[in-house]
Amino acid sequence: MYKHLYRRFLEAHAQELHFACHSHHYWPDVSRDAHLQYWDDSCQFVDDKWNYIFSKKIPHAQKLISEVLHLSKPEQIVFAPNTHEFVFRLLSSLDWNKKVRVLTTDSEFYSFDRQINRLAEFPNFEIVKVPTLPIETFNARFEKEMASGPWDLIFVSHVFFNSGLSCDVESFAKKAPANAIFAIDGYHSFMAVPLSLSAIEDRAFYIAGSYKYAQGGEGACFMYVPSGTRHRPFHTGWFAELSHLSAVGNQVGYPTDALQYAGSTMDFSALYRLIAVLEKFKSEGLTVEKIHGFVQKNQELFLAELQKKPHPLVNPQSLLRGPASAHHGHFLTFELPSTEKTQEMVKSLAKNHLKTDSRGTRLRFGFGLYHDENDVRKAVQALFI
């Protein structure tokens, strides 16, 4: 139904069933033209490129993202080439001269988890990780831990990267201690699982990007910064002084908008691609709700086909799925007996032209707009070849 959006990628992989679109998503054709447009604009504007990007392209991207997330202040979105920059800026906004307490989960993506594991080696950092499993009790357990504060930073994913399971981040934001920074990692739900930030936009930081389901490729990450935020992250860059570069001296000032979390020079071709994809989806009437419904239908077909012919490893019993399946991410995750078995399975499926991916003992099947029912049935059949 939507294969026409991905003609170039599908032609380049005509013999492959790409069900790794959780990890690496095909890019819509419009992203190629946008990439070339960045070169053309760089040629046209040369020294004036930054002014053009910050006055035209960034506001455009901010508006499109705000429409998706139901945000009333698009100017409170700031961009960076990766989420780790934002993670460390959030951490560097805290007072490291005292004890720093961070509440999170055992299922956060590596860009955050690796960083806090390293900081946990310092005596003044205390990191508490709430297990996501069993998911049926996770929301209650996380809220209980939040209430046990105080916390300096609370960081939690909307959809967990290693399972596809989701949690109630809106409720968390409303109940989080007022003096703690509350941050949502939305990378694995943005443009996939519906979420409105309208009720918590004055409370929650939100981090995501274009690499996964926004389908613009790597390099365009963003963070929503609640208005009224007045932070001075010590991990900072010259973009935060764009408005008064001529007056820069020894004093380090910070803007009052989202640029207080800005970094430095980046390649904005990814922003062009992101804009093009979001505009294309908009013109096609592809809201997040519609995309989510399309993917859910194919996921249910995949599971129904597995019910007909159960696989010894990939079956309903090994599936990680919570009670709120309507808000499950766009990949199905199966817990296999060992990492070795999982890697063997990935390699075996690849030989059968079925591309999947894994994390440890968990085998993941990603679902996208470029799959139809025939693709889903072929994917299940490939398990038995």
Brief write-up:
This protein is of the alpha/beta class.
Report the principal-axis shape: globular
Structural class by secondary-structure content: alpha/beta
Round the mean pLDDT to the nearest integer and report it.
95
Number of strands: 13
Q: Quick one: biggest sheet?
A: 7 strands, mixed
What's the CATH superfamily of the largest domain, by name? Type I PLP-dependent aspartate aminotransferase-like (Major domain)
CATH architecture grouping of the largest domain? 3-Layer(aba) Sandwich
What is the third-level CATH name, the topology of the largest domain? Aspartate Aminotransferase, domain 2
Helix-strand string: HEHHEHEHEHEHEEEHHEEHEEEH
Description:
Helix content is 36%, strand content 14%. The chain has 2 domains: 3-28 and 286-382, Aspartate Aminotransferase, domain 1 (Alpha-Beta Complex), CATH 3.90.1150.10; 31-281, Type I PLP-dependent aspartate aminotransferase-like (Major domain) (Aspartate Aminotransferase, domain 2). Strands 2-8-7-6-5-3-4 form a 7-stranded mixed sheet, sandwiched between helices. It has a 4-stranded antiparallel sheet with strand order 9-10-13-12. A two-stranded parallel sheet has the order 1-11. Strand 12 and strand 13 form a beta hairpin. It has helices at 7-12, 30-45, 49-69, 83-91, 110-119, 138-147, 169-175, 269-283, 288-308, 339-351, 373-382, and strands at residues 17-18, 77-80, 100-105, 125-130, 153-157, 181-185, 204-209, 221-224, 319-320, 331-335, 354-355, 357-359, 362-366. The longest helix has 21 residues, at 49-69. It is an alpha/beta fold and 385 residues long.
